[in-house]
Write the structure tokens for this entry.
Amino acid sequence: MNREDGETDRRRRFGVLCESLRPDLLRFAFWLGRDRQLAEDVVQEAMLRAWKSYDALEDEERAKPWFLTIVRREFARTFERKRLPLADLDELVAAEADVLAAEDDEQLAAMRQALFRLDEEYREPLVLQVMMGYSTKEIAAMMGLQQGAVLTRLFRARARLRQELGLAPEPAP
Amino acid sequence: MMNCLEFRRQVGALPSAGGPELDAHRGECAACARHQDELRALDALIARALAVDAARIQRRAAGAGGVPATRRRFFAIAASLVAGLSVGLVLLVSAPRTSIAREVVDHVMHEPGAMNLLVPVTAGALAGVLDPEGTRLRPGVGDVTFAARCVHQGHVVPHLVVRMPEGAVTVLLLRHREIDEPVQIAEQGLEGVVLPAPRGSIAIVGQGLKDPAGVAQKVFEAVDWGV
């Protein structure tokens, strides 16, 4: 394979990766920032950064956590740079109503709103665990926390969701 | 022996948890077993809730951040008119000067073989490239002989080659790249233009075209931006 073919192949492989991971990255960024425009911007920017450091990805099997880490960092950078205003929760829910909508499924819609209202410190590990399938150990490494702290956050996240949905409370850990 | 509090602490953080100790406690305590089942059902609901439609996130973000549909339609029509008027002017008057032109040329030169393909791609393949953008190409403009989603400046962009009666042109839909005015391309034997579009911009380039402005306008008008 000559140099030009190699570069074309590299671009294509990166394109395929981006395409396959993009829906999950968008969802992750959306639940992180609760704003789809922000999610789209962060994911685009993250892909740009990922492309620049694509050579650092030694194992494409590990591409997803690698991309997620870049998205998390980009999200933090965006918050730092733009100093995004704190929005009223009801306004956030209303602004993203059509993404949160669940036709003919009130329970699902209620859960989406409850997740939207969950504090970031609880929402993020829950998204990483339930949506991305990460272990508490992996989440701890990703978030720079002790594993025990992650377990507590996950416990509280579910407890708050149960409370929000009017289900019976659980004993505190 | 595990007690109820310890059991609930563990399954509260990980409802799918199992193992000899947890299973033994489940076997002895019906209330805790029921509690874990409830939490598993809750997790199934959380998983469904988190799995929002990514296309909805993208569509809205692509749709000018919540600008009402009427305004988007107006913009589409206005952009079409402006493009029509300005394509000719820009090709005649302006000189190649910006990096976007170079970026487009570099991209096209990276895949020189794409311009030589003659067999039209299937409708499904074309839809696979354009659907994620919420766009489509109206029939009649020419045969699409190459359609791929390529990485361009870190963004995934639809890359088409359209074989028209006037010649083959490469079309890149650069949704991420907003420009204020058309930019001429005349580098490395390629000529064409990058036009402001309802979603970002669109690059249209070819080789040896007799009427690049007319070709660009035809292609621009053939794109249904879905706005």
